[in-house]
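Course assignment 3, question 2. Fill in each field.
Student: A.L.
Task: Predict the tertiary structure for the chain below.
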Amino acid sequence: MSETQNRDEEHAIPMNGSFNTIKSLSTKFYSFLSFTESLLSLKYLRWLFIFLLPALFLLKYPVDNVDYDVWWHMALGKYYVTHKTLIMDHSIFSWTPTDPSWIYNTCLGSVAIYLFYNLMGGFGLWLMHTLIFGGIFLSFYLLLRVIRQRLDINSVTMIAAIAIACSPACRYYKPELFSLLMFCWMVFIFFYIKITGRKYLFYLYPIMFALWVNLHGAYIVGLVFLVMAFSGECLNKIVFTKKSFPMDTLAHLGIAMVLSILATLLNPYGVDYLASTYMGITSELNAEINTKYILAYVSLWTYLKNVSGESFNVSSTAWIMTLMIITVIIFSAYELIKKKSCDFAVIIISIALYWKGMETSRAAYFFPVAFFFIIYYLMIHRLRLENGMKKAALFSLLVFSLFFAGTVYYDIRYGGDMKWFGRGLDSFAPVKEVDFLKKYKIEGPIFNDYVVGGYLMWSLYPDYKVFIDPRCSPYIKQVIPDYLEFTTKRVNREDIRLFRKKYPFKLVILHYRQMALIFDFLKSEDDEWRLLYFEKNAAVLMHKSLLPVIKSEIGSENLSPLRFSRVKNPDVLVNVFNFYVRLNPEAGRYIYGVFRNNVSDFYKFKQDILNAMDVEIKNREKELQYKKMWLSP
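Answer field:
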């Protein structure tokens, strides 16, 4: 045997060993895939994830403690019901100048909100919320049946992604939820017809719009959807005739679109409401105020790169929507390359809804809902990728597990004192503060902040009228600019005097979000403003001119920090602490102890907040010592 042969044989051993290793790994990999497919095919595993879906929804949609819109919607609903009318003068709730030409129509939506709450309280609103999402789930399920797919791990994961993406905009109890439902069924009907060809179902649209226009103002998005769908189908007809609507179907869509536009005239205000909606959308002043000061209109683009625990919900929406649009683009490009065709309607609708959702977080729920119908239409009906869906099951399993684990982690670490089933809805509103005003009937008018105004409309009208409320638009010409100028800076005695000269209020009720402004009032010279009462959410102040007529029993009201000994919500305790510590450091130290004992150790910010409280107490104590030194003889 030659030396060359020996060298070859020497090298052959490791080569054969590598081949055997690769073969062994391949065998194990295919065994793993086979095991995974067997696991995923288990009936019990599928049903486990189906049952986990509503649990995920429940965890993702606790009672919100930020938005006060539910209260003024219920005030409107109560007015409609008690006065047996669907027309309203929106200036009746405020004592400040409002725009009498402003029209806002959620008559049926606000009535529904009021009736659910009036019959069953917070649980009733949660039930309404759940029924609406049940209606959306039903449309998803019906589409799956139409394309002969079952509710499996892929569809469950997709629905979970939609629920997560919609949560920042749809966790509130208000008429906008009806827009979510109406839009979902609009998209379902459109794709149902694209799949089955049952063109006469387009004539459900005018009926839907006649209802929608009286439920919520986002009916305008539905009209835009119809225009985009019709335009896209016209392009399909021109470019890809064989895969487009037949001419008669396209004609029926066009007729239904026109009838739907006409159906929006079936509202209590007729064409004036449509004109008011248009003016609101195109108003530059409205747009400036909304984007600068109202969180519901914040852009999502920055959340693609600024991901943190506190912004987990909004960041999740931004990323889920972005992955969705990338998926639509990939499958559309695949169809164009592979089959030399694409669906312009799908592309136009997807890009437009994605872009608008990213620009305005309030509109972020439209694209995720539409995506479910779009992706199944593309993958199953147009591309016939049923096998690809089966292979994606493992990936879906991992994604759903990540969604569920992430939601549970977020609730535990960042949620604090979360509540579900509508329980404790009014615990975030100034209930006791308002009861105080009702009890003593102190002379007004009232100056209140923007957020609290929504609850005051519900609880105080007609005894008191509001300075401002979250409806915003009635005040856009005068009050909103004045309010923003006054509340977005530190004010002194002269600023308050000039503001009162224009708006002669005698009472003040401010949420603790306006903590600095509360103490700007209290620190004004000559003790011009006096603290009357405060509770978990707001403080009540009065002007000194009311002292001669104030009832003596007001002085017996309990203002002790002991009132908060059982409070567990960290946000409430932080607000109460920040208020007390400015009045009396010892009272602040008591709230510090309540926070330490009552707030869960799992709450991520607990120790940081305790450290900050401790520093604040020591600083306030030092200030008191300095004052005593200078005042002592």
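Instructor remarks: The chain has 24 helices and four strands. The first strand starts at residue 446 and ends at 448.
Grade: pending
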